[in-house]
Every structure is written in structure tokens, then in C-alpha cells.
Amino acid sequence: MTQEAVERIEINGADLDTRDRGSGEPVVFVHGGNGDECAAVVKEPALAGHYRLIDYHRRGWGNSSRAEGLVTIAQQAADCRAVIEHLGVQRAHFVGQSYGGAVVLQLALDAPEAVRSLALLEPALPSVLFNSPEFGVVFEKAGSMYESGDKAGAIEAFAREVGGDDFRAAFDRTLPPGHFERWVAAADTLFQSDDLQAWTFTSEDASRITQPVLNMMGVNTRSYFREIYDTARTWLPQAENVELPNATHCMLQTNPKGAAESLAGFFSRHPLRG
Questions:
Q1: Residues 6 or more apart from 119 whose CB is under 8 A from it?
Q2: Regions of the chain where pLDDT drops below 50
Q3: pTM assigned to the model
Q4: Cα 264 from Cα 45, distance rounded (Å)
């Protein structure tokens, strides 16, 4: 898979690399801890040719501007809205994997009129992640490697935890060449940011979200991500719940075809005019 051309747009004092392809109802992807994760799903026939597919690199990822200090989840949600407004989009479907799920949840709270539907792919809920001893051990190990200067080792440890032991083979099949090196280049953003830990999202916040929700989990995910899936199912009773086979937490990379088909079916049941 080759890399696509990007448009570099200036919003909220930052330059963000953005891709905008196709026509139809707009679907906006917000990536998590791997900036290339949307590359495969947007090429899947279930979505390509049927929807206008938009994704961008958040601050600190790819060639987008580096983050200057703490960039809160609310600020990143504002970035997301500014991106679509720059592209002339007022209302869209939003897809957020992991950290990206936190961003789109915040966007739904801050600008509900812009959000037709939400697809949450194991969103990074701090109340679960940072109270999980299992996640804490892995993140501390990876963080220690990063602090020692071993950025590649830190990313490798983190990637194995969230993507599975064979993540490299899976990602090599679905992501553009150089994906691991670009991930390592973004290690400062991943390991120096504490914006997710500073974010709160509660059941009361969830009750304010009235849009249709797709709550998707990879069948081969870790136990704490399954807990996130179960929490979302409880907090968002309107959600359609899907367990995606042959997928880890990194479901857009490990099973882009299955993810695209589930997403397309969900969007078709909740058209923009609804």
C-alpha cells in the first residue's frame, strides 16, 4: 500500500495533514496511538466509493505540527471540528479508535449538532485504562524504555500489547511502508502527553449523547479493552454492539475489511438526513 497525498491545512494555530477522498455522506476518522491506522479501512470497497472519507493526523503525528505543551481532549475535539469546517462539512459520521474514541466522544458533548453518529472502537476511557493493573505494567515498561532513549523498543512493547504479538505482520499487510518508523517518530507525543489521564468521561456525560452509536470490540482484544466495551454498552444503551472477529484492539489495522463492512452497515441504518 502506498501513501496518499495529503493537504496541509492551518487550523487553531496548527498545521494538520488531512486526507479527503470520495463523495457521499462524510465520515471522519480520528486515529488513536498509531497515526497510520485509518490507511487501510478507507480503501475498503464497503466504504470507498460510497462515502466521503476524511482523516487527519492529530498534533504531534505524521507531519502535523508538534504539540506545544498539554493539548487537552477538548482542544483536540475543537481541532477535529475545525478540520471538517475547513472542508465545508457541517455534520458527519465520526469514527474513533482508542484515543480517537475519546476525541469523538468529547466532540459529541461539545458540538452535538455536528455529529450524526458515533462509531466507538474501544475508546480509551481513563476510568478503565488507568485503573487496570495489567495496562499499568505494560505502559510503565514501555515508558521506562522510552525514558532510557529506546524509542523503538518502547513502541514495540506498546504495539505488542495493543496489537498482538504478530502486529508487525498484520500491519505490514494493511499499512503503508514505513508505518513503524513513523510510529517511533511520534513516540514523544505518545509518551510525553498526559492529556488522556487528565480527561474525564462519566456515565453522566454518556447520558448526554443521544446520537446513534456503534460500539465495536476486537474479539482478540485485551481484558481491559473488553471492560471498556462493556462499559460503553452499559453507559450508551442505544449502542449497537459488535464483536469483530480476527481483530485486536487495533481493529482497523488487523481486520480493515470486517471493520469497514460493520461501519458501512451502521451508517446506512443512520443516514445523515435522519
A1: 93, 94, 95, 96, 213, 214, 216, 263, 266
A2: 1-3
A3: 0.95
A4: 10
User: What pLDDT is attached to residue 192?
Assistant: 83
| Residue length of the chain | 274
DSSP code string of 74-104: HHHHHHHHHHHHHTT-SSEEEEEETHHHHHH
* Radius of gyration of the CA atoms of the chain, in A: 17
Which residues sit opposite 120 in a β-bridge?
Answer: 96, 215
> pLDDT per residue over 123-168, tens digit each?
999 999 999 999 999 989 999 999 999 999 999 999 999 999 999 9
CA distance 47 to 41: 8
What pLDDT, on the 0 to 100 scale, is given for residue 50? 96
In which residue are the cell numbers 515498561 written?
141
- Where b means 16+ CB within 10 Å and e means fewer, 150-170 reads ebebbbbbbbebbbbeebeeb
Grid look-up 455529529 returns 115
Look up the CATH superfamily of 7-269.
Alpha/Beta hydrolase fold, catalytic domain (3.40.50.1820)
Strand order in the sheet with 213-218: 7-11, 14-21, 51-56, 25-30, 92-97, 115-121, 213-218, 240-244
pLDDT, residue 274, reads 62
Q: How far, in Å, CA of 55 to CA of 192, rounded?
A: 23
pLDDT at 1: 46
